[in-house]
Each structure stands twice: as structure tokens, then as C-alpha cells.
Amino acid sequence: MAALASINPYSSSSSSLHPSFHSSPLIFSSNTTHDPSSCSLLSVRAAKSSRRGLSLLPVSRGLTIRSAATKPAKSPAEEDWKTKREYLLQKRVRSVDVKEAFRLQKENNFVILDVRPEAEFKESHPPGAINVQIYRLIKEWTAWDIARRAAFAFFGIFAGTEENPEFLESVESKINKDAKIIVACSAGGTMKPTQNLPEGQQSRSLIAAYLLVLNGYTNVFHLEGGLYSWFKEELPAISEE
């Protein structure tokens, strides 16, 4: 009879915008070393079976179950949206619409930080915008990353993304911490409550804004409506392709 030695299921809620799948392939390893004393005890019990019913003591074998694809610890970007939103409001991060953003960039030297994937940025972006993608295509080949690739593929997504671990380092190499920054993504999201969304709607740009203020940036703004609205309003845009 095999005894389960230790099973540690991992569960975590994630607020990241890319799908988060929890997959734990199991590796079984059986310890086949017998304890001689257990065998002797079994024989003694068998010998006494003439007076009593046969009593058998099962010999235990260690069975270890390990998770081969354990998800890494939760990063700040994966913090609950409610926590991120409260911090953004506490730090007075303000949302601006696209026309105001264009004016601030033109007249007040605001920097537009485009956190979309690099391919989307190259296709079209506001002139002067700086691109640092907050999510990138999955690059690593750890057990967890392989499991995530498989989970994305199951849903027909063959370009799964992961948080860019170099996001803050890249931003710091391009933008000073005292710069006035408008963070932009495709959809924009919002911190404003609505009837259907009492805590607003999370987005890549709001996650990026949260990471920036968390790491010492003091003049961070958010582009309401996202770059979708920018292009819809036919504001200036350029392409690198």
C-alpha cells in the first residue's frame, strides 16, 4: 500500500491581463528500500494467526509527489487590481484623455510611454513616444513556462505572453524618475467606477503606472481610452515598418 508523503498544491489569484494557467505535472518517485524490522514483524504476526485471525501490518513505501511546474511567487504586477487601484489613487495618478495628452506632450514636454508589445508599437505610435513593453512573448523554458505555453496553445494562442522582468530597468535607462510621463497601452482601462465595474477596469498601462509609482516615479499620468482613442481621433501617428 503506497502512502502519500507530501502534496503541496499551489493556488494563487492573478490580476495580470494575460491568462494565468496553473498546471502541475506530477513526478512520482518510489522508495523501494524495505525495512527488515517490518518484515520480521510481519512474520511474527503470521505465526500467531493460529490463535487469532491473521493480522498483517502493511509495509509502507515512501511515495513522493513533487510539482514540476510550480508557479513563481506573485510579482507586484500580479497584485490584486483593488490594491493597485487604491495605491494609484493614493499617489494621485491622474488619467488624461488623448487630446489633453497630445497638448501636454507638445507644450509641456510630457513623455508618452507606450507599453504595448514592440510589434504593435512599430506598426503605429504617437511621434516621440518611447516603447518599453510591459509584457513580452514567453522566452524561458522552465517547467512552469512550458506548462504555460501548453495552456495558451490549448486555447489556440500560440504567442503567449509573460511579464517583462526587465521593464523597470529599461524604463529607468530611458526616462528620468522626475520626468512627466503619460503611460499608454491599446485599451487604456480606467480607474473610474461604473455601474458594471465599480472598481474601474484594469489595463496594461495602469499596471505599468502602478509599477512606476511603486518604484519612485512621481509624475505619472495615465492615457484614458488608450491609443485606440488616439488613432480614432486621428491624432499624429507614425510607423517604423
TrEMBL record:
Gene3D superfamilies noted in UniProt: Rhodanese-like domain
TM ranges: none
Family matches, as Pfam families: Rhodanese (PF00581)
Residues of the Rhodanese domain: 106-239
GO cellular component terms, A-Z: chloroplast
InterPro entries: Rhodanese-like_dom, Rhodanese-like_dom_sf, Str14
Domain of life: Eukaryota
Alphabetized SMART domains for the sequence: RHOD
Full protein name: Rhodanese domain-containing protein
